[in-house]
Write a structure and sequence with these properties.
It is an enzyme of class 3 (hydrolase). InterPro entries: RNase_HII, RNase_HII/HIII, RNase_HII/HIII_dom, RNaseH-like_sf, RNaseH_sf. Its main location: cytoplasm. By secondary structure, the protein is an alpha/beta fold. It has one domain: Nucleotidyltransferase, domain 5 (2-Layer Sandwich), CATH 3.30.420. It is built from eight helices and five strands. It has a five-stranded mixed β-sheet with strand order 3-2-1-4-5. It starts with a helix and ends with a helix.
Amino acid sequence: MLQFEAALWAQGLTAVAGIDEVGRGCLFGDVVAAAVILPRGWVLEGINDSKQLSEKKRNELYEEITREAVAWSVSRIDAGVIDRINIRQASRLAMKQAVLGLGLMPDHLLVDAETVDLDVPQTGIIKGDALSQSIGAASVVAKVTRDRLCAEVWDALYPGYGLASHKGYATKEHREALTRLGPTPMHRQSFLGNFFAVQQELF
């Protein structure tokens, strides 16, 4: 998990930032990105793609990462912007804002299969959250942040949709709630066209 970081550290680069996002495929809510700079040589046991970890493990890692990181930052882009500029551009914007929120400019970015629109040397790594400790750490911070928003904020704001359980993804529970209640202002309208077209065909 440190092969990419170690190669950069060997070049004398210390501020290596991992970047990742979560919520790209959701029907509801913000896409959330995180940027994390970990201490040189620090080993984080148990880190992996955040989706492969239990909620308990993610929360434990979140506390450790945010406590030990040299710097970390989270950025959110809401459904209105997603609808206006599309989800890929919104994800890239969230990543850019997360980097700018670190308080220092990294020497190098390690990014999960994307390019960040900043004039900073960077490496895009396919399945980076499972191959790079820094990207894995960013994945955990982004996912825990978004999951907590779903469970602690958005579920109370829009009861009846089951947001605390499905986190805005297109589960059976979520689709049934949409059919019954209709979309909220935080649903991504650009994602719902196909959903409602399919629903109409069924009735």
